[in-house]
């Protein structure tokens, strides 16, 4: 009998925790995900990877709570709070980012979900989450202005406004009840960066030169899967909040268009001939496909999306999750990770997932080579999305 989607998601959660979990600067009461396994002695700091790790912890906590496993859910929520503390310790006592507004928007979204999960489970919310969320939203506000017609700057250099910053900011604004501002952000995205022919969002618009009251701009026409994800989520949530039937239909139609565009632009066939989401390699790209899958799962569960798009979103999430599971490398963590070939599974195993769903982990990742946190959080996110649909 095949394992259930909930079992698979729990295996991913356990594996990421076991392989990557660590303390921030060895301080008790903190938690961080190491950037790679085996852990490097010295490594870069990926703030936004930690934000998506926190999001995945909230996914797992909600899954365990809904299954009636309240002790497990409580441990996962505690882990998420320790991660927030760990990020602050690693960042010199603050949760904000000195450079990138999109990074802060991702963390704001994760903290908003942690707040809701705390309230569902306990009826209360910690001051750490409220304080961090307030600081992040204040910084995001500083990245939004009317230059180039609207949207959010990518970073504090303020020469590039892009989908990656504007979309999660719009979603964060919606979830803090600033609906009009969120609608303005989304309208700017569709007016400025939506490629209707390809059904996806262009990356951004750059300020090349300014002077004498004129500006010269250049549009980056690259397509990345993660840009479609948070716009889809924001469009769905705005549709739910729109009372006017015509307006609600507009946003619902836009959600369906994003789903169909994702199926056209960001998929490939796996060895079984099934369509799965196409990934963007490692590094920061190692999270892109997982972000899209999160919001495709939201579309698959939404009654506001027509049945064709809803079923398509479900198929993409479930087939990608199945391919990731089939392509995992599972091993006994007490054995030498660098040992090639099959290993005996004595006790609880851990799994390493492929950064490319259409290819087996053993094919993509040389046995014994370091595995990146981002690609594993991505797989975990996809498996959690499939578990929610089940």
- CA-based gyration radius: 20 Å
Output the structural class. alpha+beta
Q: Count every helix, treating DSSP H or I runs of 4 or more residues as helices.
A: 13
Helix content: 40-55%
Oligomer: single chain
Give the number of DSSP strands.
12
Strand content: 5-15%
Task: Tell me the overall shape.
Answer: globular
| Overall pLDDT level | 94
Give the CA-CA distance, first to last residue.
16 Å
| Elements, N to C (H/E) | HEEEHHHHEHHEEEHHEEHHEEHEH
Low-confidence runs of at least 5 consecutive residues: 340-346
Which sheet architecture does the biggest sheet show? 4 strands, antiparallel
Element layout with pairings:
Elements: H1 5-20, E1 21-22, E2 32-33, E3 36-37, H2 47-66, H3 70-90, H4 101-122, H5 127-142, E4 160-162, H6 163-175, H7 179-192, E5 194-195, E6 200-211, E7 214-223, H8 225-241, H9 245-265, E8 267-269, E9 275-277, H10 288-300, H11 307-326, E10 329-331, E11 350-352, H12 361-364, E12 371-372, H13 373-389
Antiparallel strand pairs: 1-2, 3-12, 4-6, 5-6, 6-7, 8-9, 10-11
Helix pairs in contact: 1-2, 1-13, 2-3, 2-4, 2-13, 3-4, 4-5, 4-6, 6-7, 6-8, 7-8, 8-9, 8-10, 9-11, 10-11, 10-13, 11-13
Describe the structure using short key phrases.
four-stranded antiparallel beta sheet; globular; 13 helices; single chain; alpha+beta
